[in-house]
Amino acid sequence: MKVVLWICLISMWQFPCCLGAQDCLKLHNLTSAEVETVAPSTPVSEVPLAVKCYSRCMIDEYFGEDGKIDLQRVGSRGTEREHTFLAHCKQQFDGVTDLDRCDYPYLMLQCLFTGKASGTIVS
C-alpha cells in the first residue's frame, strides 16, 4: 500500500508547527511528489537528505536544547497511545550518537508512523 506524504500527514496532524508543509518543501527544494516516493519503511540510509531534513523542519519546534524531541514541548497533542509510541521511539533513538542532524527526526517519525500503523510498539 502506497502511503502518501506520510511524514507530512503524521507531523501536521500530530505536531502542528510554525512552518507549514509548503514552507518546508520550499526550504529543502522538494516537491510533494518527491516526498511521496519515500515509503515509510525505507531505511534511513536510503532516504535523500532533503527528505530527512524536511521531516525535521516539520517538527522542529518540538526539539529541546539537546537536539532531541522534548515530550513537554509536544504537550497534549496526540492521544495517550501516541505518546506511548513516541516515548518508546525516544528510548530507541535518543541515545544513538552516530546520527546526522536530519536522521533523528526522520527515524522518530518513521518509528511513530510504524507504531501507529501496526498498533504495536516495534523495536
TrEMBL record:
Lineage top rank: taxon: Eukaryota
Keywords on record: Signal
Residues annotated as signal peptide: 1-20
GO molecular function: odorant binding
Database matches in Pfam families: PBP_GOBP
InterPro entries named among the record's database cross-references: PBP/GOBP (IPR006170), PBP_GOBP_sf (IPR036728)
Name by which UniProt lists this protein: Uncharacterized protein LOC108042950
